[in-house]
Write a structure and sequence with these properties.
Elements (H helix, E strand, L loop, with lengths): L3 H21 L11 H16 L8 E6 L4 E6 H12 L6 H21 L9 E2 L10 H8 L3 H14 L3 E5 L2 E2 L4 E2 L35 E7 H8 L11 E5 L5 E6 L2 E4 H8 L6 E6 L2 E7 L7 E2 H9 L4 H8 L4 E4 L2 H12 L1
Parallel strand pairs: 1-3, 6-13
Antiparallel strand pairs: 1-2, 4-5, 4-14, 7-12, 8-9, 9-10, 11-12
């Protein structure tokens, strides 16, 4: 079967000949018209352009909106736009926004293939449980007077990568991303259970430009013990870090005979990352963190700094996701995704 790209190209060529050629034949008589010919030519050109925009309109994403408690259906590229706008600052470089578009689109395509629907309806919700999503009304409130310029920038980034996803061995990857690292990304198996060949630790030295790259958070001793479900036996110390990951994040901490992982501590204390250290001052425990997020996959601030240095979006994603390919979905892919979305 011919690729969808080939089919649409052939269709547009035929459309151009049928629609535009007859009008070109009367161009010598343009001076005898009252401007209607120019308008007709522009209309015909718009029709041709519109014909090229429908290759993935069949695929609709069902999103459960947590505020309205309703499921909304929208075209996949509109969903990607709302995710990119929610997950990455619009002031970021265009190439970073394109990289984010690829991650967002890959995530939802993989989710569609899995075919699991939420109990409340929809294939995803609009929270960090999946990907944060805001629609255009939300974004108008968010951007205010800058809405037109920012939405145009985001639309351009999404359009530039339309239909493209990240694959490994022919399959959509788990395209995880986060805000900023501690200087290195994390191996997937050191934060989650699964070891994925494309989610391996790489240096990301640019991340220190992120706001609140180093942050502090204080707890009372009582609150600290309660949240972690432990008891501190010493009045001067906290817990002993007994191992770190290859990227220097906390792997395990011993509180007497109780062992907690860095991930458990981060989640229970709502810390910015698993690269943390602490000190005890009287009745307080002060924790210092470096970076923001789980650290697995693409660093968003790292991607933006790479873009500032002239790196293109394909270079960015292939740096953070090892040995992956950028794959353009064809007609058959869209048809299969459409069927999966309807189930």
């Amino acid at each position: 079967m011919k690729s969808f790209k080939t089919l649409i190209t052939a269709g547009l060529t035929t459309c151009s000949v049928v629609i535009i050629l007859p009008t070109l034949l009367v161009l010598p008589f343009h001076s005898q018209t009252d401007g209607k010919l120019t308008d007709q030519l522009q209309y015909n050109a718009n029709q041709v352009e519109a014909a090229s925009k429908n290759k993935n309109e069949l695929v609709e994403i069902s999103v459960y909106r947590t505020k309205t408690k309703k499921v909304e259906k929208l075209p996949i590229e509109e969903y990607v736009l709302g995710v990119v706008a929610s997950e990455m600052p619009a002031i970021f470089e265009p190439e970073a926004l394109k990289a984010q578009s690829l991650s967002a689109r890959t995530f939802i395509v993989k989710r569609l293939e899995e075919g699991t629907e939420l109990d409340e309806g929809g294939i995803v919700n609009d929270t960090v449980q999946f990907q944060v999503f805001q629609d255009r009304d939300d974004l108008k409130k968010k951007y205010g007077a800058d809405y037109d310029s920012k939405i145009k920038k985001l639309e351009d980034a999404v359009k530039a990568t339309e239909g493209q996803i990240l694959t490994y061995d022919g399959q959509p990857i788990t395209a995880s991303f986060f805000s900023s690292s501690n200087g290195y990304t994390e191996n997937s198996e050191e934060y989650w259970k699964n070891s994925l060949p494309y989610l391996k630790s790489v240096a990301s030295p640019w991340d220190s430009v992120a706001p609140n790259y180093i942050a502090k958070k204080a707890f009372s001793v009582k609150e600290f013990e309660s949240k972690l479900g432990i008891s501190l036996t010493s009045k001067s110390s906290v817990g002993k870090v007994i191992s770190r990951t290859k990227s220097n994040r906390v792997e395990q901490v011993a509180f007497g005979k109780t062992i907690l992982t860095g991930k458990e501590i981060r989640e229970k204390l709502e810390l910015r990352s698993t690269d943390f250290s602490w000190e005890r001052k009287d009745n307080q425990i002060i924790i210092t963190t470096k970076g923001y997020g789980h650290g697995v996959g693409m660093s968003q601030y790292g991607a933006n700094e790479m873009a500032k240095q002239g790196k293109l979006y394909d270079e960015i994603v292939k740096y953070y996701y090892k040995d992956i390919s950028i794959t353009s979905l064809n007609k058959k892919d869209f048809e299969e995704l459409s069927e999966a979305a309807k189930k």
